[in-house]
Structure formats: C-alpha cells, structure tokens
Amino acid sequence: MNKTWLPIKVEDFDGHINDSALKLYALTFTDSACLISRTLGTSLERISKYNLTNDKLELSDELGSGIVDILKLTRGELKMQFDSFNIVTYIPFPDEKYKDQTAAINDQLANESWYLKGSQFDMKKEVLIEFKDSLEDRIVKPPLRKELNAAVIHTFENNYSDFHLRSIWGVNYFDNTNIISLSELEGNGLNSTIIITEISDSLISGYEFIDGDKSLIQLSIAKTNFDQINKFLLKEWVLKGFEEVKDEYGEYWSSFGGVEKGLKMDDLENNKISLCFNKNQLFSIKVNRDTLTHGTWRLSNSGKLIELTSRYLEDGHNLVRNHFLTMIKIDSNQMKIFRRENIESSEGEFARVKFIENYEPAIDDN
Description:
The protein is mainly beta. It folds into three domains: 4-92, Lipocalin (Beta Barrel), CATH 2.40.128.280; 102-221, Lipocalin (Beta Barrel); 226-361, Lipocalin (Beta Barrel). The chain is 6% helix and 57% strand. The chain has three helices and 25 strands. It has helices spanning 102-109, 226-233, 265-269; strands spanning 4-11, 25-29, 34-39, 45-53, 56-61, 64-73, 78-83, 86-92, 112-117, 126-131, 149-157, 160-174, 177-184, 191-199, 203-210, 213-221, 236-245, 252-254, 273-277, 282-287, 290-299, 305-314, 317-330, 335-346, 349-361. The chain has an eight-stranded antiparallel β-barrel with strand order 1-2-3-4-5-6-7-8. Strands 9-10-11-12-13-14-15-16 form an eight-stranded antiparallel beta barrel.
C-alpha cells in the first residue's frame, strides 16, 4: 500500500459513474503512516496521519478525523469507499520518466484555443477549449487561486456551438509526470486529469482514464484569423434572413421581474433586428431602432465565438447574462451567426430558441 495511487474511476453504491472531484487527488501512503493527498494540476498537497485496521482506514489531521472503507487492495488496484456516492478505484501512479515541461505547456495553452480529441465529451462533437492566463472573475477558494486559471469549453455540432462550460485548469509536474487538470467551475460535471506524453508547438498528446479505461487524448491548436474577423465585426449589422434550428428539448421560464426584455418571432420574420459592435467592446441589440439589450462583447481567441455580457439591476441586485454567438461566416459584406435566444412566447414568459441568422452591414443614413 505504501505507494502513490492514481484515481481512475468514481462510482456510487449502485455502480453508476460519478464524476466526483475525488478524481483530481492522487494519494501517497508513506512508511511513516502519513497520507499525502495531492491536487493534480497544482502543487497543493494535504497531509494526514493514517491507521489501517483490517478493512478500515482511519484518517486524521488538524481539521478532524474520519474512517474510509477499504473494499479491495492488491498490488495493482486499490478501491476505497468514502461514502455511498463516492467509491473510488485507484491504480499505481504511472512510472513515467519525463522532464519537467510545465512552463512550456502553460505558455502554449494560456490565452490560446485548442481542439480536444478523445475526451469524455460526445465523440461526435468537436470540442474547443479557450484557455485563459488568469482566473478573471471566477470565484475559487485559496490557496488554489494562485494555482489555477479560467477556461471555457465549447462543443460544436454542425459548425456551431450550443454548449459552453465555464471551467478551471492547471498544470504541474509530479513524480516525473506532466499533468493538466481540467474541471467544471461549479458542480461536478467535469473532473479530468490528463497525463502528458508529448508536446510540440501545435500538438499536445497524452491520456486520461475515463470510467476506468485509458483513453488517448490529443490537443491541437486552433488556427485563427482573429484580427481580420475583429476588424470585420466593427460596424452595425442588420438582419436579412434566418432559419430556426429545431430542438427536441424546449425551455420555458418567466422573466426576471420584467427586467429582461425578449425578442418576438415577428421581430425576426420582419427583419427588425440589428447588432452593433464597436471598438470600445460595447454592443447593442436593437429592434426597430429601440435598444433591446446592451453590454460588452469580446471575440474569442479562436475567432469562432462572440461572448456577449449584459448587466441588469433588479431590486438592488446585479444580474449578469452571458451568452455566445457562433461565428459561422463573416467578411466585409455579410455575417452568418448561430445563437440561442430568448423569445417572448407570451406575456412574462420566454422560450429559448435556436437560430442561424444572416446579416448585412447597415446602410449609412448620412
């Protein structure tokens, strides 16, 4: 047992896979009866004392104590039950002999977009990750604030993205191994550790364990013409046509006390909508020249997405709405985007509907 163990699967008492944060922690049992829990992708570690009696592992540190059940222990596998929803399978940490390349990996990923292949996401979809070089406004508890950066994961299908996951990422060197961690910012929808085996300027290869099985991973840099797309965007655009993207899952909800306005189908059918992006990173969406919403915008470093941020004040509380437009095509004369928008279906109630929209530059009245 006195070795380092890598988590490869978490399941509940019924055998259902649980994407728990426990997948991010490697465990080292020492000869001095200490357990070192290391947060992969960071340099953070927590040390506890342990006492193993039969199939019970008692752990204690300055924060308290607890008992974990040992369900299986062999030379090649450790299985521990933390509670009925977190039964973790471990294998011995890989015996790798790689040099420390964390600085190079960090420099390559930060502020760039990379395509991810072989992940736990739907294999039929294209996965694009925007890696940031800071946490921006993300709320992360110390001491991980100094260890992690923000990321946004987008999945594409039919050349547009309708799934955006706010995440955090980190990279570290542990036991002769370079490791990238990637996890959902809120909730446990994603907890991933990628062991890196090879890097180049445009390709990073490695593997991770998905539901206990080893899966090869490949990150390839997203080539972009960011400056040209950004230049094309800086004008007012008017809607010239659209098509609705059918969705088998409908979403309906009431508005935030009437604060947020919504589009109506008539606005699209009669081409009443205009979008304006200016060089101060401000945007506005208008209907018949009346402002529907406004805020700030940014073009993703991949050039494939525009993030819009609108802010509202209701009952003394600041409300923030972030949504993304997928850039399908743009030049000086046309813009084609995909978006999922709030459509007012009845008074005080909205439906979330998907559209592909075609725009042309507005005619200068002057």
